[in-house]
């Protein structure tokens, strides 16, 4: 009788059904476990599978960590973009406030002076003409004294809106201070065109204004200075327009 090898196996729960044949196969003499070389290979395969499972679990964990980091980076990027948009908007608002009148929204002195210098340089290069209007609201103080400063501010805003509406996009309307306004007119072709613009501005500004007590009327004084290429500085031009405005006002007295 042939001696069978003795097997030392861990207890295996009894199985029924199709699995029972599998169990009996492993316990049968002559199965792979009966051959030491095959058993060692099987255990080695199981060990490699276990290592692969560990590596897979580690990779999955690393992938999950990387995904969380990527989501965090996306969130940080979105927050940074929002901050950049806010900074850009704050900068634009600050830049606008630095160059525009807070009450009327027109250009302020700083912006007017900058555009006037640029327009004069362009006129010198292109041999073109420009003019500056200096506008003063006659007896505006009476509006403040009678109706209050809030009514005066509304009137100034209405004047600014009318002034902006009756000039070209290439021209610049400026609130110079108080009830004084400047208008820079570029590319003036001839004196007739300039006179037509002055008449239009004057008629637009003296039309009645609505107020809490009815309609208000006011008169305006307009002085004009024409740029003579290479013979005036920007502040010379403003001073000459101012002087012309006072001559117009004096002629009404």
Automatic annotation (TrEMBL):
One of its GO terms (molecular function) is catalytic activity. It comes from Methylomonas koyamae. InterPro entries: DGC-Regulatory_Protein (IPR052163), GGDEF_dom (IPR000160), Nucleotide_cyclase (IPR029787), Rev_trsase/Diguanyl_cyclase (IPR043128). PANTHER family: DIGUANYLATE CYCLASE DGCT-RELATED (PTHR46663), GGDEF DOMAIN-CONTAINING PROTEIN (PTHR46663:SF2). This is Uncharacterized protein. Its cofactor is Mg(2+).
């Amino acid at each position: 009788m042939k001696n069978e090898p003795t097997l030392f196996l861990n207890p295996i729960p009894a199985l029924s059904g199709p699995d029972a044949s599998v169990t009996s196969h492993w316990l049968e003499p002559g199965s792979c476990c009966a051959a030491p070389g095959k058993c060692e290979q099987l255990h080695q395969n199981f060990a490699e599978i276990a290592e692969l499972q560990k590596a897979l679990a580690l990779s999955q964990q690393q992938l999950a960590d990387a995904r969380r980091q990527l989501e965090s980076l996306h969130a940080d990027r979105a927050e940074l973009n929002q901050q950049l948009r806010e900074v850009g908007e704050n900068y634009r608002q600050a830049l606008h406030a630095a160059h525009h009148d807070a009450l009327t929204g027109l250009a302020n002195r700083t912006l007017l002076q900058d555009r006037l210098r640029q327009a004069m340089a362009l006129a010198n290069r292109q041999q073109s003409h420009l003019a500056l209007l200096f506008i003063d609201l006659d007896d505006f103080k009476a509006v403040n004294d009678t109706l209050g400063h809030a009514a005066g501010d509304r009137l100034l805003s209405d004047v600014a809106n009318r002034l902006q509406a009756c000039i070209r996009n290439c021209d610049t309307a400026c609130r110079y201070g108080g009830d004084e306004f400047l208008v820079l007119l570029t590319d003036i072709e001839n004196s007739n065109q300039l006179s037509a613009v002055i008449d239009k501005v004057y008629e637009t500004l003296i039309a009645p204004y609505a107020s809490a007590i009815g309609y208000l009327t006011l008169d305006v004084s307009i002085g004009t200075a024409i740029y003579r290429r290479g013979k005036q500085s920007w502040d010379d031009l403003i001073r000459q327009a101012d002087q012309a405005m006072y001559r117009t006002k004096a002629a009404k007295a």
